[in-house]
Design goal:
Order of helices and strands: HHHHHHHHHHHH
Oligomer: single chain
CATH class: Mainly Alpha
Number of strands: 0
CATH topology: MetI-like fold
Helix content: over 70%
Radius of gyration: 20 Å
CATH architecture: Orthogonal Bundle
Shape: globular
Largest sheet: none
Length: about 220
């Protein structure tokens, strides 16, 4: 078992969740209650990583953030390092590929909140921000937990985008899914099986937490 690789995978998954939850809550809320002409286009853009093959998405990210591009050079000047084949680039790619797993459950959770509930908060003298904090967020909690669990599990298992953008650098971009692939290629099926089992258990635990939390939430509001 490659414990440093496992630790790096956990670090990537946790950091991706932390970044995405900050972006996904306002975006999911806006998509839930906005009926503007651009909503359909933005929803399609959010869902795009679900239908694109990971290697295709990874290729475009590699081309976009490579040192030979203006954007890649900009990030290199700002960060003092290239984005490709670094943990920072891997994190950016992970955030982009996981956007639908974070935004869509949160959007559905906000859509399920009746508008009358928000309006009742406003009529009671609550500001829009306080209504959001004390009414909307607690009611959207199942969607937020689902988003975190799906993002975490998907990040741990992501292979194509990780390999294209991060490569396979031990200690920096070598994740557990890549290590499993390498072990299988080397016919080390025992080590590959151990690491695959760990991913299976962690992913199952994440999904189980979602169902348990959602059931508790539904029982509380029945």
């Amino acid at each position: 078992m490659e414990w440093p690789t496992f630790a790096l995978s956990l670090q990537l998954a946790v950091t991706t969740c932390a970044v995405l939850i900050v972006l996904a809550i306002p975006l999911g809320r806006w998509l839930a209650w906005n009926a503007g002409p651009w909503k359909g286009w933005i929803e399609a853009l959010v869902a795009l990583p679900l239908v694109l093959p990971p290697t295709v998405l990874g290729y475009y990210l590699l081309v976009t953030f490579g040192q030979g591009t203006a954007l890649g050079q900009f990030f290199s000047d700002v960060l003092g390092m290239p984005l490709v084949f670094t943990f920072e680039g891997l994190l950016l790619a992970s955030v982009l590929v996981n956007i639908p797993f974070a935004v869509q459950p949160i959007q559905r959770a906000f859509e399920a909140i009746p508008r009358e509930v928000r309006e009742a908060g406003w009529c009671s003298g609550l500001s829009m921000m306080r209504t959001f904090r004390v009414i909307e967020l607690p009611l959207a909690k199942p969607g937020i937990i689902t988003a975190l669990a799906l993002t975490f599990a998907h990040t741990l298992g992501e292979f194509g985008v990780v390999l294209m953008v991060g490569g396979n650098i031990p200690g920096e971009t070598r994740t557990l899914s890549i290590a499993i692939y390498d072990r299988v290629q080397s016919f080390e099926t025992g080590a590959a099986g151990t690491m695959a089992l760990i991913l299976l258990v962690v992913s199952f635990a994440a999904i189980a937490i979602v169902y348990r939390q959602n059931k508790s939430h539904n029982d509380r509001y029945v």
